Amino acid sequence: MKYNSTRNSTLSVDSAKAINDGISKDGGLFVPNEMPKLDKEFFVRLSKMNYIDRAGEVLRLFLTDFTDEEIKACTKGAYAGTFDNDCPAPLYRLNDNTSVLELWHGPTCAFKDMALQILPYLLTTSSKKVADGQTTVILVATSGDTGKAALEGFKDVENTKIIVFYPVDGVSNAQKLQMMTQEGENVYVCAIKGNFDDAQTGVKKIFTNPDVAAKLAENGMAFSSANSINWGRLLPQIVYYISAYCDLIAEKGEVDSYNVVVPTGNFGNILAAYYAKKMGAPINKLICASNSNKVLTDFIESGVYDRNRSFYTTISPSMDILISSNLERLIYDMSGCDSELISGYMAGLSADGKYEVNDKIKAELNANFVGGYATDDETKAAINETYTTYNYLADTHTGVAIKVYNDYVKNTGDKTETVIVSTASPYKFSADVLEAVDSKSADHDGIKAMAILSEVTGTKIPTPLSGLDKRTVRFEDVCDSDDMIKAVYGYLEI
After folding, report:
1. What distance in Å separates the CA atoms of residue 125 and residue 128, rounded to the nearest whole number?
2. What φ, ψ does residue 17 adopt, rounded to 5°?
3. Which among 311, 348, 303 is positioned nearest to 330, based on CA atoms?
4. 3-state secondary structure at position 92
5. 220 dihedral zone (left: phi>0; alpha: psi -120 to 50; beta)
6. How many domains is the chain built from?
């Protein structure tokens, strides 16, 4: 299988090159030139396998330049003994027609672990194929979860350095402490003055700056990415949607159609579900759940992407995003792989902060997606209702998804089997979750709130989050977004 750039469909590379580079030199994102088509027998066969074997079967379809032995080494290294249970992505049934796909049982208690535990193995294998001997510099912008998951995945990996930028006031207390106390000899963390979009834009500018690339090359280095702009990060996300359908089959025997609800800001997590649908998973509606930064909801409803709007800091900070990078992959696919059209849209986004897709893409959006959003108060109410009704504790991002799903059911009457994606442990956002389930215990910081939340609900604080306040702080640097290149050069000593 080959991979093309969303901004130059004539460019064709192997998966190892796509993963090693992270992003095309033209600023486009790598996408497979075809999507494997899976029949029902494939899903039934995988339903009898464990997660590691399922992952291997899916990855083998896309990584055709990897050997079976290389794929097995990647999947076992990532998922064997690194999660808190035997099934890294379990389905928890809420009621007869609704399940929660829990993606937070990894070492950082967030869904990013599902991809970022395996990406170092994929990247190391890829680098040996196309850039052996070169030091790979992983450059990351994070709204909270990607940063810690990438740091944990890449710490002390041979021939690799990782640099993470996060908005100084745009992550939870637990997320910040996780990054500031990160161990590893090859890691560096720096906060920026600004929001996640500023961090993401800064990273993209560094990636596509030829002078920076030349300076790294002089020193035997090259950039790659751990954000979902890297195909090696997005591919493992497809796996857990395939696995979820297999679990439904194993549980119910026959599932002809189901909906998927995904809380998302950068669009990568729901894009992976869209790809799973294209491959053959019988997903009916992809329900895109936004917080008050509802640029994606508005886009799905109107076909106009417009980031020229107020930015809100919310209790679901990993979704506080107005520039959704992975949306580029979706509209490329829906356009019939028209790279010239996509380049025009992205130029408009860069120049004017907006673009409007054509009628063909609008029709595809309406056929596949539903958008909705939740305010902070609505999110807290959804967390409270879910806890009261089902004794199930949801984090603030999952709360957004639950509220949007409830609205969808009220508006449509659709009671189709539904999978709601849960992206983080409630303990990563313990202060707001605590306030939602027990308002009398509000006004505690994240660390104190963890202990009270555990006491009030009778649930256990995940091991990776316990004792965060007692760990040694290693990284306290803060820079302006315009000075991110200086920070990179300083850490790399070049």
Report:
1. 5
2. -65, -45
3. 303
4. strand
5. left
6. 1
What proportion of the chain, given as a percentage, has pLDDT over 70? Answer: 100
Helix axes 430-437, 396-412, angle to 10 degrees: 50
Residue of 305, 283, 284, 285 whose CA lies nearest to 294:
305
Helices (H), 291-395: 295-302, 327-334, 339-352, 359-368, 376-390
3-class secondary-structure state, position 93 = strand
* Nearest CA-CA partner of 83 in 162, 155, 152: 152
Q: Are 279 and 438 in contact (CB under 8 A)?
A: no
Place of tokens 């910081």: 445
Residues classed as catalytic: 112
Could you tell me which residues come within 8 angstroms of residue 482 by beta carbon, excluding any fewer than 6 positions away? 202
**pLDDT (average), residues 235-239:** 98
SS (H, E, C) 390-413: HCCCCCHHHHHHHHHHHHHHHHHC
> Which residue intervals of 47-139 are DSSP H helices?
51-62, 68-79, 113-116, 119-130
**Structure confidence at residue 440 (pLDDT):** 80
HSE-CB at 112 with a 13 A cutoff on CA atoms is: 24
User: CA-based Rg of the chain, rounded to a whole angstrom?
Assistant: 21
Distance CA 107, CA 117 (A): 9
Q: Partners of 95 in the beta sheet?
A: 98
CATH number at residue 202: 3.40.50.1100
Helix or strand run (H / E) with residue 12: strand 8-13
Q: Which residue has the tokens 């680098």?
A: 127
In the numeric block, which tokens belong to residue 24?
A: 């095309």
Retrieve residue 50's tokens: 């464990």
> Which structural domain range is residue 124 located in?
1-494
The pTM of this model reads: 0.93
Q: CA 298, CA 362: separation in Å to the nearest integer?
A: 12
pLDDT value of residue 282: 98
Cα–Cα dist 240/103, whole Å: 9
Per-residue pLDDT tens for 21-34? 999 989 899 999 99
d(CA 63, CA 42): 18
The CA distance from 316 to 263, in Å, is 10
pLDDT digits (tens, 9 = 90+) for 32-80: 999 999 999 999 999 999 999 999 999 999 999 999 999 999 999 999 9
Residue 52: per-residue pLDDT: 98
Q: Which amino acid is at 121?
A: Y
Cross-strand pairs, 124: none
The reported pLDDT for the residue numbered 133 is: 77
